[in-house]
Amino acid sequence: MAERRQILFFELAGIVFIIIFGSILHFTFEWSGGQAVIGVFSAVNESVWEHLKLGFWPALVFALIEFKYLKKTSNFLFAKAIGIYLIPIIITVIFYSYTVILGESILVIDILSFIIAVIVGQLVSYRLLTGKTLPYNLDMVSLIALILLGLAFVLFTFYPPELALFQDPLTGGYGIAAH
After folding, report:
1. How far apart (Å, rounded) are the C-alpha atoms in residues 66 and 6?
2. Inside any domain, residue 73
3. 74-107, pLDDT tens digit by residue?
4. Structural domains in the chain (count)
5. Is residue 169 part of a domain?
6. Which of 16, 132, 159, 160 shows the greatest Cβ crowding within 10 Å of its Cβ?
7. Within 10 A of 90 (CB to CB), how many other CB atoms are there?
8. Residue 176 counted as domain residue
9. What's this model's pTM, rounded to 2 decimal places?
10. Selection from 14, 12, 11 nearest residue 55 by Cα
């Protein structure tokens, strides 16, 4: 098992990586000229759902990098799955909580919610990576959960449900078609 110090280093480095990479992904779809393959990983419009990709994909990429070094750490897949799932959950909860109260979206709060979500996700991951060993069968469930969320991001880029979470507040459209 990796040392606690090594695990902490990776989780803290992950915070920086996810925030920087996620921030860049906000713009990559536009920079690509609207290429669909880039849209799978980038925000294709200003909906809440599309902004959740900005935390998910970088966190998944970083988890793959970490795996090379921490794969023998107990609870790895479970810790990463919980940490990665927390990012979109926290962003969504903060966004809808404050917009209900204030009646509007505020960019600074949206950015802070992204940063807070990434920090919480990585620190919870650290706690799980350094805690008691959990049953092995959680690894398979965790892997399936990550795959399902990734597939949802891909599918809903092109075929989003007509729900507020997926609606671009600027165009009123949904998914890549709202661009």
Report:
1. 11
2. yes
3. 899 999 999 999 999 999 999 999 999 999 999 9
4. 1
5. no
6. 160
7. 19
8. no
9. 0.94
10. 14
